[in-house]
Amino acid sequence: MHEEFTVSQSALRTTPVETAGVADRQAPRLHRRAADVAERSWRPVALLVVCFAAWWLIAATELVQPYLVPSPGRTLDVILDKPDYLWQHTWVTTYETLLGFVIAVAVGIFSAVVMVYSSTVEKTLYPILLFAQVVPKIAIAPLFVVWLGFGIAPKILIAVLIAFFPVVISMVTGLKAVDPEMLQLSATMGASPWQTFRKIRFPASLPHLFSGLKVAVTLAVTGAVVGEFVGANEGLGYVILQANGNLDTPMLFAGLLVMSLIGVVLFVLVEIAEKVFLPWHASRRDVAATTAY
Amino acid sequence: MPKDATLKTDATLKKDATLKKADGATGDTNHTGHTGTAVRAADVDVRFRTKKKDVTALTDVSLDVAAGEFVAIVGPSGCGKSTLLKLVAGLLTPSSGEVSLYGERVRGPRHDIGYVFQRAALLEWRSARRNILLQAEMRGMPATQARARADELIRMTGLTGFEDAYPHELSGGMQQRVALCRALLHEPPVLLMDEPFGALDALTREQLNVEMNRIWRQTRTTVLLVTHSIAEAVYLADRVVVMSPRPGTVTEIIDVGLPAERDYAQTLATPEFRTATGRIRELLGAVSAHD
């Protein structure tokens, strides 16, 4: 029966609102959003262009030896020369990152929920979580290779360990930040704990969760690459180590560039997901429209 | 002196209860079908234990509210007015004494009440209508019936045209109307309101007071309203409960003696209104002068 509600409600929302109350939201918003994106992104893009120009200038004037800092052109050449090689390793690193991220999110959300609903579990688990966070993952990475071999497993494990913490912390904060009056109201409605969680607590925690996810997804890339540094025969970490050994700085720069690109793309994907799933979220709002009085 | 006051209170109370009962025979339009005493608090004490000290929030509070009656509660800040509402809702349990709803002792959260807070407490990700329907979803009410009732309330509270707006698109007054609709959706026999109009500007507040009077007359539900506004209390209520500072107790219960249907401007000009507000001011002023 609850489903019935949801369906009929969304059907209603798509019908045009004729009354003066709520203005048509769709058309002006798209326009404004495009202008918004342009307004927000021209400065960082300009800075990026300046950085590339500086890089190019340093290389062109041979201020630094070319074998230390290859020109942007040469780096690009390497990428275009060996697309298959780079693509293959990029895919490996992306795969490890995504898998690590997804596992970290699943485990993180689950532990956060359990911790919020049981203070005994929270008191038991929290110090251990903190300890796991404080231990430098780079330092234990070699151990994972000894335990799990040179395959994909130790990379994923390190990615999970690094990305897990921000997910748990943000989810716990989100679940605890719910308006206590909303919970009291829920009690007077005779809601079951599951209903309260599904309809109130979980959706209310999502803005917090997403800020954690943005941190976590970039950390997951780092985790995967750290794993590859310690012992691997594929992935961008491996590419960089190989290039380093051969003093092949153009390839090294190419690896770095692609790696950063993975991080940026994943971050943007999380941001898009946030906009899709939480269109109501305050920090995403343009200007709160006042409609009455 | 406090003892004296309670005694007097009890006397007025009994007189009132009988009056209301006599009334019940004619005023049977109450669609909850209940008559008699809706809410009863008997010798209620509430003590909170904090790390540093014990705080007595309420002491020796006795109150009877007849079915269909509108009772306002006024008193200085921190006198335990909100605590009293939470006791009736079963969100708190008294340290001693007893609270009952329709003769049934309150133990744990009650589902046969509607609750409105000072802040609207709406879910940001739901439209006005879906916020109202939350009540139905949690209760598992039949969908068609709930939607019909929601439409009726939306019309009654003047929310028409705003059903599909999200909370951040609504003004404070509109948000509070949504909260009121949500509280009335399941036709609760008792409506508890904790300073529902406290965060609104004066003009919006007056408008909502007028609407509240009309809604109360239409639904015939029993209302307990906590407020800081003496004018609001007297304009809306059959009786006004005046409370003392912490530890809160009932200082006096004032019978407003105005008809149920009240025009705002005319009511404010009546001698009954002026007598009642004057008396309440005197009581609250006297209370603060003693401090």
UniProtKB/TrEMBL annotation, chain B:
Keyword Chloroplast: no
Any one Gene Ontology molecular-function term assigned to this protein's record: ATP hydrolysis activity
Keyword Nucleotide-binding listed: yes
InterPro entries in UniProt: AAA+_ATPase, ABC_transporter-like_ATP-bd, ABC_transporter-like_CS, ABC_transporter_ATP-bind, P-loop_NTPase
Domain ABC transporter: 39-270
Alphabetically ordered keywords of this record: ATP-binding, Nucleotide-binding, Transport
Matching PANTHER family: ALIPHATIC SULFONATES IMPORT ATP-BINDING PROTEIN SSUB, TAURINE IMPORT ATP-BINDING PROTEIN-RELATED
Protein name per the record: ABC transporter ATP-binding protein
